[in-house]
Amino acid sequence: MILSDDLVVERLQLDDGSWVDVARDFLGQIGHEHDEVFAAVLEGTAWAESRVFRYERWVIEPRLGGQGPREGFAHPALADAQRLAQHRYGVTFARPTFVRYRNEHDAMALHSDRDMRWLDDTVIALLVLGDRRPFHLRPVEARLADDPHKGAVHDVAPGHGDLVVMGGACQARWQHGVPHPTRPTGERISVQWRWTSGRGRPVVGASYRSPRLYSR
């Protein structure tokens, strides 16, 4: 596996304290075949439908959540990705979680990962497998009136083994989401690692993810 210093990365500086790194063909850069990793993660993850409480009722989320094997990883590429990202960004991640978008009907609204609570200094790494889809970013204070993109000003559009890392104050000052694409789209899986320094002022109130229920 290559060293983190050898990784080809594009940095998008969102503001003076918020940034997004994108490593295109990350899997290829570290010596793994995308299709093989995608198939292993799709098969080796326990997928479940979830419901969230919105607008005074339970609503089925238009995507699936997943957990990997109790021990190890569905594919060695995930272990390599975690080690490389931890080394490059100087953080320690817990085991990843998984999100699966089955087709163009699945999506995720613009949001911040408020369930981390301390958002002033975070690192979130996303290994994106499967079809390329929009991945929008907008300032928290964005004006939304008459805007078809709902205030989004950037689209990093990852897929096919790209790695996206959001860092700094990104979760405090920006929102991200996976909107419905404008054309038919196949499977997309996001492998997600999260870290927070625990510094700053914790957010108050429920996160986008809570409360929620899961079922097979």
Overview of this protein structure:
The protein has a single domain, classed as Alpha-ketoglutarate-dependent dioxygenase AlkB-like (Jelly Rolls, Sandwich), CATH 2.60.120. 15% of the residues lie in helices and 38% in strands. It has four helices and 13 strands. Strand 3 (46-54) and strand 4 form a beta hairpin. The longest helix has 14 residues, at 76-89. The model has no long low-confidence stretch (mean pLDDT 91).
Estimate what percentage of residues fall within beta strands.
Answer: 35-45%
Distance between the termini: 36 Å
Strand order of the largest sheet: 1-2-10-7-12-5-4-3-13
List the domain count as a whole number.
1
- Helix count equals 4
- What is the CATH superfamily classification? Alpha-ketoglutarate-dependent dioxygenase AlkB-like
Q: Provide the succession of SSEs.
A: EEHHEEHEEEEEEHEEE
Radius of gyration: 17 Å
Brief sketch in words of this structure:
With 216 residues, the protein is of the alpha+beta class. The chain is built from 4 helices and 13 strands. It has one domain: Alpha-ketoglutarate-dependent dioxygenase AlkB-like (Jelly Rolls, Sandwich), CATH 2.60.120.590.
Defining key terms:
alpha+beta; 9-stranded antiparallel sheet; 4-stranded antiparallel sheet; 216 residues; Jelly Rolls; 15% helix; 38% strand; 4 helices; globular
